[in-house]
Amino acid sequence: MPGSPLLASDLHSAESSASASSLPLIQFSIKPRLCVLNAGEEVCRDELEVRWQAAQKRSLCLYQQDKTQPLRCWQNATRGEYQFELTASASTDFELRETETGTALSDQRFQVVYNDKKYRRARRNPWSFF
């Protein structure tokens, strides 16, 4: 019927059928996401900040690539934060996984880049006095 108000029970059933067909979006971020190593540096030591947020309560764990134990877990939460120090010599992937199933829901990469000066252009001409 046009103009008839939606009942709360109708709205709830519409939400549950929508969530069953597609996974709710999870916002997942890592800061910083990049580390530049200069000549002579072999490892990157950085304080990483991980944040996630979901529309519904979730039980999630944060995993680092090639590690079997989670870095941090959250139970029945809609958001989470975690800070830790990372020492890396190569790019590393992080995943948010569901606690019960172990299914990866989202991932982010911390990228390690080597700053090779021989491929960089000089900022000024070598003949310039200024």
**CATH superfamily caption:** SoxY domain
Query: What gross morphology would you assign?
Result: elongated
Strand tally is 6
Q: How large a portion of the residues is in β-strands, by DSSP E?
A: over 45%
Q: Note the gap between the termini.
A: 78 Å
Structural class: mainly beta
CATH class: Mainly Beta
Please estimate the helix content. Answer: 10-25%
CATH topology: Immunoglobulin-like
Give Rg in angstroms: 23 Å
Mean pLDDT: 80
What string, H for helix and E for strand, traces the elements in order? HEEEEEE
Describe the largest sheet.
6 strands, mixed
Number of domains: 1
Protein name: DUF3019 domain-containing protein
Pfam family, one: DUF3019
Can you tell me about this structure?
- The N terminus is likely disordered.
- 11% of the residues lie in helices and 51% in strands.
- By secondary structure, the protein is mostly beta strands.
- It has one domain: Immunoglobulin-like (Sandwich).
Features:
single chain; 130 residues; mainly beta; Immunoglobulin-like; six-stranded mixed sheet; 1 helix; 11% helix; 51% strand; elongated; disordered N terminus
